[in-house]
Amino acid sequence: MRPRRFRAMGPLTGRIRVPGDKSISHRSIMLGALALGETRVSGLLEGEDVLSTAGAMRAMGASVVREDNGDWVIHGVGVGGLLQPQAALDMGNSGTSTRLLMGLVASHAITATFVGDASLSKRPMGRVIEPLSLMGAEFTPSPGANGSQTLPLMMRGAAPAVPITYRLPVASAQVKSAVLLAGLNTPGITTVIEPIPTRDHSERMLKGFGARLEVEREADGTRIIRLHGEAELTGRRITVPGDPSSAAFFVVAALIVPGSDLVIENVGLNPTRAALFDVLRAMGGHIEELDRREVGGEPVADLHVRHSALTGIAVDPAVVPSMVDEFPILFVAAALAKGRTVTTGLEELRVKESDRLAVMHAALELAGARVTETEDGLMIDGTGGEPLPGTPEGAAIATHLDHRIAMSLAVAGLASKGGVEVDDTRPIATSFPVFESLLDGLASGTARA
Ligand code: S3P
């Protein structure tokens, strides 16, 4: 364990840049590994989750190499060409690696065993096992709590797999992507029906690599995604935009620390990801987009954020999928806002890297915030801008191997009287290895002004 007390520091000023998007980084390696020819990726997130994906793709035959200039170069095996891995695939903490790779394996004639850390080994895999079984894959999962199916898990892919039409029972980009990736090596058309839109990086990138994929939108917002197999993918250049989910921590930090005036450069603003910034604006946050542009087929801007007096709101549950990873840090903003913030429709947060409703409830209460937990959300009565008391001497926030809990409470510490003690900062490396050095650079005034 690597504990740390995060304390109030001066205003956050200057310019920073956050690392590449985690979702896009995973997908660049996976599709590069299935493409013919060379894929060159700049701005790849070098976090532990993405390195788990890189390791697995190497174990199945692709060449994935980091060059000295920071680019990652991938030589793929071609769709249908994945090789039998010789050892279990260690997915570490990464749900995205696990579920998307299960999709890839499902339509190849190989057997693979997936293992992960204590957090990942509790997470439900039934949501991907169900559609991939319909396509012909066979699974031997471990029994989890409440009848769930979990890692360690062995699976055998089907070749040829059967194309399916699958209506997503949960709003999950991981399940959607698993089925589409399985469809790549499946003859015929694989169809995913998505009643509630989720992040669409897979669709954008599959098209970019040359797959034939069509998206039809119905009047009620339902999306019907059709992928034509067997696809042929061609290697390409990819520039990964900055991760809005990582930028979120510094956006909220600048909003709640008095005197802050910060520019965060190169933040991905795909509409299926960016709802947090709209919610914070509706709470009174000054967040301005500068130089909106396109990077690697994704909308991007620099965000100019200034300290703001925030007011609590009721968050519309319809926006949940487009900020599903940002609720822990939104709860911190709410704890500093004036009045009550109410969130609902957050059942999915209970099956992330930790039960983020229960864990954030306990964490914020320990830091002195007023929080009520409901079945599907939190209700938070904010301080109106007054700093939180902070965690008492000798007590620490339990992060439960969840990077976003650790970073959220680190930010809460910046707006506290006595500081917030986090029990373990190591999980931060799963998605944002330079989080602490960026924060320390801002504290010492070494961020670019
Ligand atoms: C992700 C999808 C989301 C998100 C996760 C990354 C992806 O998960 O929470 O961090 O890259 O597809 P769900 O599909 O479970 O909502």
From TrEMBL:
GO molecular function, one term: 3-phosphoshikimate 1-carboxyvinyltransferase activity
Pathway membership: Metabolic intermediate biosynthesis; chorismate biosynthesis; chorismate from D-erythrose 4-phosphate and phosphoenolpyruvate: step 6/7
Protein known as: 3-phosphoshikimate 1-carboxyvinyltransferase
Assembly notes: Monomer.
Key words, A-Z: Amino-acid biosynthesis, Aromatic amino acid biosynthesis, Cytoplasm, Transferase
Catalytic residues (UniProt): D325 (proton acceptor)
Transferase recorded as keyword: yes
Residues at which 3-phosphoshikimate binds: K22, S23, R27, S172, Q174, D325, K352
EC numbers: 2.5.1.19
Subcellular location: Cytoplasm
Family of the protein in this entry: Belongs to the EPSP synthase family.
Domain of life: Bacteria
HAMAP family given in the database record: EPSP_synth
Reaction(s) this enzyme catalyzes, per UniProt: 3-phosphoshikimate + phosphoenolpyruvate = 5-O-(1-carboxyvinyl)-3-phosphoshikimate + phosphate
Domain Enolpyruvate transferase: 8-437
Keyword Plastid: no
Record-listed phosphoenolpyruvate binding positions: K22, G95, R123, Q174, R356, R404
PANTHER family registered for this protein in UniProt: AROM/DEHYDROQUINATE SYNTHASE (PTHR21090), PENTAFUNCTIONAL AROM POLYPEPTIDE (PTHR21090:SF5)
Function: Catalyzes the transfer of the enolpyruvyl moiety of phosphoenolpyruvate (PEP) to the 5-hydroxyl of shikimate-3-phosphate (S3P) to produce enolpyruvyl shikimate-3-phosphate and inorganic phosphate.
InterPro entries xrefs: Enolpyruvate_Tfrase_dom, Enolpyruvate_Tfrase_sf, EPSP_synthase, EPSP_synthase_CS, RNA3'P_cycl/enolpyr_Trfase_a/b
Annotated organism of origin: Novosphingobium bradum
Protein's gene: aroA
